[in-house]
Write a structure and sequence with these properties.
mainly alpha; 5 helices
């Protein structure tokens, strides 16, 4: 939705994005059925207190949304997708290192 809204707001035509849109749709569909791990906001906050940094950050997000809503929403969505991919790759690398360390520690 944010992609379509951004395209409409920037006055791009269908010819300008016709090669990007199918890959975006296929990528989004594959990410929906993949094992990519995303941060769950259900576990947040861990305590009753919220760190002070979240107050100015929330205000900056609200101001950015008021200035250019479509682009900010698209940026937030893309950052969330990238964070899931990065968290998944990071977890795989960490898991492989732990497995190698366990095997190497058992042989010595």
């Amino acid at each position: 939705m944010a992609f379509v809204w951004t395209i409409e707001r920037t006055d791009l035509t269908g010819d300008d994005v016709c090669f990007v849109t199918p890959f975006l749709a296929i990528g989004a569909g594959l990410l929906m059925i993949s094992n990519v791990r995303y941060y769950s906001f259900k576990a947040w906050p861990l305590s009753d207190k919220v760190p002070f940094i979240w107050i100015p950050l929330a205000m900056l997000i609200l101001v950015a949304l008021a200035i250019d809503t479509p682009r900010v929403l698209l940026t937030i969505a893309l950052l969330y997708v990238l964070s899931g991919l990065i968290m998944t790759v990071w977890g795989l690398i960490r898991h492989r290192r732990e497995r190698r360390a366990a095997r190497g520690g058992g042989e010595a």
